[in-house]
Sequence to fold (147 residues):
Amino acid sequence: MSPGRAVLGAAGVLLTAYGAWLLLSRQDLDRNLDVVLWLAGGVVVHDLVLGSAVIVVSLLATRLLPAVARPAAGAGLVVLGSLTVLAVPFLGGFGRENAPENPTLLDRDYAAGYLVLVATVIIVVVLPVLLHTLRSRRAAPEGTGGR
Fold:
């Protein structure tokens, strides 16, 4: 193991231990069950829902997309899936009704922000594939197209 990995691993273990200590020392034990359920729910949503969706869409994409676009589409799908899972509470406004006295809670147009993120990811995923396709068409010798 390289020294850099050992340092990063040790830092991760120390930060995790510190976070666990803060959680256990500054919060009621009853609330810790909610934290465990929330963390487990995140793993379930990620692995079952997002993971399954990525696999199904990737299998479909291998039949529909050209080979050059498949890696970019897979990366875009993972990023969009993760963003969507993170955005659901904001897009749904969950928690807004529990704190009507706090006008700063969920005070933005989260749908517009989410759509900007989706558009950005799509552009970042599609643009390199288009540029690669255009470059390869320019580099192809004349008279070889379609044969």
About this structure: The CA atoms of residues 17 and 59 lie 40 Å apart. Residues 67-141 form one domain. The chain has a mean pLDDT of 85. The helical segments are 3-25, 29-64, 70-92, 110-139.
